[in-house]
Design goal:
single chain; Immunoglobulin-like; five-stranded mixed beta sheet
């Protein structure tokens, strides 16, 4: 019996059936606030690293220092469990108008951290968080030292 589907089409269908509709991961919403020496700072990248391994979650602070975490989709949260937390500073976005992009935009200078460098690594930050499944995790504010 001859197949009516092209071999490439059959391969694509087989791959889709084997993998499903994409990865699925149990996450819980996580919101928090970061300040530096008592002042909110925008564009701080907050990274949650699961202590048992697994997919990290990240969020970026707004002008008020507030963030929400994302793992697979915007705002979906982090995997439940214990996490070590790291912080970094994101570079400002390049000019949205292509006519205003300069050669320096292609070779940006390193971003200076507005806080103590120990916070940049999950192993040295000293900050941990527990994410509980099935609930919104509204964390207390973290005030990072300069």
């Amino acid at each position: 019996m001859k197949s009516i589907l092209h071999p490439r089409t059959m391969l694509c269908v087989a791959v889709l059936l084997a993998t499903g509709c994409g990865p699925s991961l149990n996450t819980a919403k996580v919101n928090g606030k970061v300040t530096v020496a008592g002042q909110p700072v925008a564009d701080i990248v907050v990274t949650f690293m699961p202590e048992g391994g697994g997919r990290p979650a990240t969020g970026v602070t707004d002008a008020s220092g507030n963030f929400s975490l994302s793992t697979l989709a915007t705002g979906d949260g982090a995997v439940p469990g214990k996490h070590k937390v790291a912080f970094s500073k994101s570079a400002p976005p390049p000019a949205s108008d292509p006519s205003k992009v300069s050669p320096a935009d292609y070779n940006p200078k390193p971003v200076e951290l507005p806080f103590n460098a120990k916070y940049a690594r999950a192993e040295t930050s000293g900050i941990t968080a527990d994410v509980e499944a099935g609930k919104a995790n509204n964390l207390p504010a973290w005030d990072l030292e300069k």
